[in-house]
Each structure stands twice: as structure tokens, then as C-alpha cells.
Design goal:
Blueprint lengths: L1 H12 L18 E2 L2 E2 L2 H22 L1
Antiparallel strand pairs: 1-2
């Protein structure tokens, strides 16, 4: 979580807008097996993060 907090600070310093949701991934265990994300919770959080990124892109465009 310290890395995520640091990255958010960097984004703010560069006048960026980080997404409200931050997703951490435990890389100590296999995350992707046969092309699919194994953990259903992680899959859901990444989906929400993707929705936020697309939402911000649409808001900035218009």
C-alpha cells in the first residue's frame, strides 16, 4: 500500500487525477492462469478500476 500511496502523490504533483480506487496485486502467487485472472475479487476490482479510467477519459473529453 505504501507504493500505491507514493504513486498517488506523484500523480498529484504532476497535476494528474488518480482514480478513487487503487488496486494492489499480490504477485507472490500466480495472478493469470491460462489467460484469465484467477482471483474473482481481483477481477472485479480491476473491472471497476477500468470503468473509472474510462469514465474519467469521457469526462475530460467533453
Amino acid at each position: 500500500m505504501a507504493t500505491l500511496t507514493s504513486l498517488r502523490g506523484i500523480v498529484h504533483a504532476l497535476r494528474g487525477r488518480p482514480t478513487p480506487l487503487g488496486v494492489t496485486v499480490n504477485s507472490a502467487t500466480p495472478v493469470v492462469v491460462d489467460g484469465a485472472i484467477e482471483d474473482a475479487g481481483l477481477r472485479q476490482r480491476l473491472g471497476l478500476l477500468g470503468e473509472q479510467v474510462v469514465g474519467f477519459a469521457h469526462a475530460r473529453r467533453g
